[in-house]
Amino acid sequence: MSETTEKLISVIIPCYNVSEYIDRCIDSLVNQTIGIDKLLCIFVDDASTDDTLDRLYVWEEKYPDSIMIIACEENGRQGRARNIGLEYAVGEYIGFVDSDDYISPEMYEKMYEAAKREDVDVVGCLMQREFQDGRVAWKDENYVSSGKRIDINDIKDRKKYIMKRLPGNIGCKLYKNTPELFEGLRFPEKMAYEDNYWGALLAFRIKSYYLINEAYYHYMINYGSTVMIGNSEHQMDRLVIELMKIEEFKRLGLFETYHDEIEREFLELFFINTLKTFFARFDEIPYDIIRTMQQNVTDLFPEYEKNIYIDEFNPLQKEFLKMIRVNMTNEQIDTLALAYRDVLRKYNDPGC
Q1: What share of the chain is helix, strand, coil (3-state, %, to 5)?
Q2: All domains of the chain in start order, with CATH
Q3: Cα separation of 83 and 117, whole Å?
Q4: Which of 8, 48, 135, 206 gives the lowest tally of CB atoms within 10 Å of its CB?
Q5: Across residues 334-349, what is the average pLDDT?
Q6: What's the CA gap between 76 and 195, in Å, rounded?
Q7: What pLDDT does residue 228 have?
Q8: Distances (CA, A) of 286 to 166, 250, 254
Q9: Cα-Cα-Cα-Cα dihedral sign, residues 284, 288, 293, 298
Q10: Residue 304, Cβ neighbours under 10 Å: how many?
């Protein structure tokens, strides 16, 4: 690949067995209004076993100056693919797109303009979640912080950011390519939910951000993806990731200063969301793992009921939190799971 035009943005796209979706994703990238010549699209094929790699090479032939293909011989999951992509990233900014998603044509032009104008570390946009047939499942709501530069100047500002964050996943953001943000920060490899780890640590590095109040990122509900497959052992990775975060926060000396914020996020991501996943997608509920989760929470956060953000949980989340202290039988857990599935069916929700 030659570089005939200066690249402004590197976009990292991990790919694994996405032959059915990859053309849609690439088409949305090459048709960006900023100009494909301003982008370096780094596709990291994670040892696909279908014809994903062949399709990537077809696109590379069409856009040799803007598409880079890296073919891995061994599957390392999205974390390793993203880490590899970061090694090749050039330009002022870095973005991420999942290969089964797509983005609106104006996304990178608008985000780049905002990043340059506001001179911030991160620019975010909203996300729209869609079914494969084009129906909209849900869309991010408007944020009061949109349309203005936000600076993080002290611990109080940092706590506020940790609690609110920018909406959407890492694909909804454009990151300034600086050592302050990226040096030494990598994704966990061979695990799902690797972006939960990376994003949580990045939250302590960001000093300024700007949010565009438009849903430019289109997150596609893919029932064959890692996080959607029922009965998948990869769902357990969420638990490992959250425990890894706690250890890293302690190592970095952040745990005490940001205890309530870290605790609140742990309760939601480790306990509530994992329970919802078990209840929605597992034919056989892993009772022993749930009991281990209960013990993990009480060991790490024995006074979690006193968390200053506890009232921000919605009523359903509060009901899940009540389970932490209760020694339930398998039959009682099954009853709760069935009740939760009924709620999902009522609202046509694919689950957490």
Answers
A1: 45, 15, 40
A2: 9-220 (3.90.550.10), 233-346 (no CATH)
A3: 29
A4: 135
A5: 82
A6: 14
A7: 46
A8: 33, 29, 32
A9: positive
A10: 19
Provide the token pair at 315.
Answer: 């009523």
How many angstroms separate the CA atoms of 251 and 243, rounded? 13
pLDDT of 2: 44
Look at residue 224 in the predicted model and tell me its pLDDT: 56
Q: Is 185 left (phi over 0), alpha (psi -120 to 50) or beta?
A: beta
Instruction: Report whether 122 contacts 175 (CB < 8 A).
Output: yes
Q: Show Cβ contacts of residue 120 under 8 Å, excluding neighbours closer than 6 positions.
A: 114, 149, 176, 208, 209, 210
Q: Which pair of tokens denotes residue 161?
A: 């950011």
User: Over the stretch 160-217, which tens digit does the pLDDT of each residue have?
Assistant: 999 988 889 999 999 999 999 999 999 999 999 999 999 999 999 999 999 999 999 9
Which residues are registered as beta bridge partners of 188?
none
Write out pLDDT tens, residues 237-288: 999 999 999 999 999 999 999 999 999 999 999 999 999 999 998 999 999 9
Residue 25: what residue type? Answer: C
